[in-house]
Amino acid sequence: MSFEITGKLVVKYNTMQRSETFKTREFVIEKSDDINGRVITNYIKFQAVQDRTAIVDRFQEGENVKVYFNIKGTRWEKDGKVNYITNLDAWRMESIVANTPGVDPQPNYGGSQEFSGGAAPAATSNVDDLPF
């Protein structure tokens, strides 16, 4: 199951080579919500792994972003003690246009959209070329 959240990118950490074949990169977004007239600010740390560690490269700290992520959980046991670890595993990011009062933020697809499995869709030059 996939989730998404929008917020302000506040910290980008360096990529960490965890083993010869595994690397991670963490980043944090700030998410503020108005709950009954009281603003609550949360700082959410994500991780990106392997080839996804570069998804944060094109974004600047302070920029509004939308993060797509999965929740991953692991059971870890050492010296007879069991621990459970939860990770927010980011797999895609988009830039978000600044908020206008009364208007929901919209993704900015201007050249930063990631496409999987091939080239970007071709642009049409004539908007009247409808199939019906």
Automatic annotation (TrEMBL):
Spans annotated as Disordered: 99-132
Biased composition annotated in UniProt, kind: Polar residues: 123-132
Listed InterPro entries: DUF3127, NA-bd_OB-fold
Domain of life according to the entry: Bacteria
Protein name: DUF3127 domain-containing protein
SUPFAM superfamilies with a match to the protein in the record: Nucleic acid-binding proteins
UniProt source species: Chitinophaga costaii
